[in-house]
């Protein structure tokens, strides 16, 4: 997890960028990236980054630039297939200075512009400032795993960040309730569209990109889920066993891809079906015991620790438990609310 933020002031605003505001936006989300920090400013456009080092720990400083300094990127996430592109990109003359997935996004953008996002497999939110075109390109992954919030001001200026608190720190908007979003939130435990609980703050939807050019914003959808059957499904040629085997292989591949890291790996283990299946597959892919973590209330009727312990014993994990008392929970509640951009509900409060 990293934190990204940025400001793009339009010519209509007749304002100059204050780097101190950019740094305050960045530093209010230090918890997302305690390992490194950086800023980049080009006239009325500025980018900020807080880094949690996972891949190429020593060399992945951001904002990162391309070979000629015309592009700068800030990025939060992981691109699981980034190594697949390196050989072909180097053959086209691109020079890598790191082993970071961040650099692959930059070089793909140089080759394919905004369509580069269609080639990426992973979880991500990133922004690229193209100095030659004077364009800011922002993209979010297909399922919206990584967050991206923004404010498009009346004068065309754009503020964006991984968390809403960074937008409030920049005074991009006043901290006022968006009453139009309350019915959606109360019914679904979260807002389901572009709106948020803060008036004037929007979220870039999953599978969408945003292009800013001197005050003008263009948002496009580059992906959506489809349910169209293939030819074999239409003719009933596939058996249940074939579906099960295909799912199992996709699941194993998904777990393997997420082991990409230059730091120790771990996982949350609730004892439920999902985390137990991940622990089972992951334990067969690494050489040392998987570090598993369970968080629960101390009361037996309010936790599932026995199931987590069973899974940990079965697959020989290095298991850790954190017990929380009701008093500890309520003491932490103000901090939980501060961290939760989308509001608190049963699932998020338990998993924070």
Main sheet characteristics: 6 strands, antiparallel
User: What is the number of helical segments per DSSP (H or I, 4+ residues)?
Assistant: 11
Mean pLDDT: 92
Counting structural domains, the number is 2
CATH architectural arrangement of the largest domain: 4-Layer Sandwich
For the record, what is the CATH homologous superfamily label of the largest domain?
Aminohydrolase, N-terminal nucleophile (Ntn) domain
Order of helices and strands: EHEEEEHHEEEEHHEEEHHEHEHEHH
Kindly describe this structure.
By secondary structure, the chain is an alpha+beta fold. The protein has two domains: 3-221, Aminohydrolase, N-terminal nucleophile (Ntn) domain (Glutamine Phosphoribosylpyrophosphate, subunit 1, domain 1, 4-Layer Sandwich), CATH 3.60.20; 258-351, HUPs (Rossmann fold), CATH 3.40.50.620. The protein contains eleven helices and 15 strands. It has helices at residues 19-27, 83-91, 101-112, 164-169, 182-188, 231-234, 240-257, 273-283, 305-315, 326-339, 346-351; strands at 3-8, 36-42, 45-51, 64-65, 71-79, 122-130, 135-140, 149-152, 158-161, 202-203, 208-213, 216-221, 266-268, 291-297, 318-324. The strands form three sheets. A six-stranded antiparallel sheet has the order 2-3-1-9-8-10. Strands 4-5-6-7-11-12 form a six-stranded antiparallel sheet, covered by helices on one side. The radius of gyration is 22 Å and the shape is globular.
């Amino acid at each position: 997890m990293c934190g990204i933020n940025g400001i793009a002031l339009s010519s209509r605003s007749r304002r100059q960028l204050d780097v101190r505001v950019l740094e305050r936006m960045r530093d209010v989300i230090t918890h997302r990236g305690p390992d490194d920090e950086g800023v980049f400013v080009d006239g009325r456009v500025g980018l900020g980054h807080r880094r949690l080092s996972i891949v190429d720990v020593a060399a992945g400083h951001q904002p990162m630039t391309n070979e000629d300094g015309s592009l700068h990127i800030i990025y939060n996430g992981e691109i699981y297939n980034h190594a697949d592109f390196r050989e072909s990109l180097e053959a086209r003359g691109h020079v890598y200075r790191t082993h970071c997935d961040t650099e692959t996004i930059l070089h793909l953008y140089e080759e394919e512009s905004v369509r580069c996002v269609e080639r990426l497999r992973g979880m991500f939110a990133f922004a690229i400032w193209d100095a030659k075109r004077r364009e800011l390109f922002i993209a979010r992954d297909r399922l919206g795993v990584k967050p991206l919030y923004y404010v498009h001001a009346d004068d065309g200026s754009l503020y964006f960040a991984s968390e809403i608190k960074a937008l409030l720190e920049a005074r991009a908007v006043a901290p006022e309730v968006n009453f139009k979003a309350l019915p959606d939130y109360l019914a679904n435990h979260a807002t389901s569209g572009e709106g948020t609980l803060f008036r004037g703050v929007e979220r870039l939807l999953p599978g969408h990109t945003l292009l800013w050019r001197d005050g003008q914003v263009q948002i496009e959808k580059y992906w959506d889920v489809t349910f169209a059957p293939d030819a074999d499904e239409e003719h009933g040629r596939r058996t249940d066993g074939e579906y099960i085997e295909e799912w199992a292989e996709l699941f194993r591949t998904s777990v393997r891809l997420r082991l990409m890291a230059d730091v120790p790996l771990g996982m949350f283990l609730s004892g439920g079906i999902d985390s137990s299946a991940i622990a089972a597959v992951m334990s067969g892919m690494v050489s040392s015991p998987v570090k598993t973590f369970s968080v629960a209330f101390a009361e037996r009727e309010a936790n599932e620790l026995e199931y987590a312990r069973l899974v940990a014993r079965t697959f020989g994990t290095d298991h850790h438990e954190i017990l929380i008392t009701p008093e500890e929970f309520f003491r932490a509640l103000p901090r939980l609310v501060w961290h939760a951009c989308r509001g608190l509900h049963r699932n998020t409060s338990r998993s924070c």
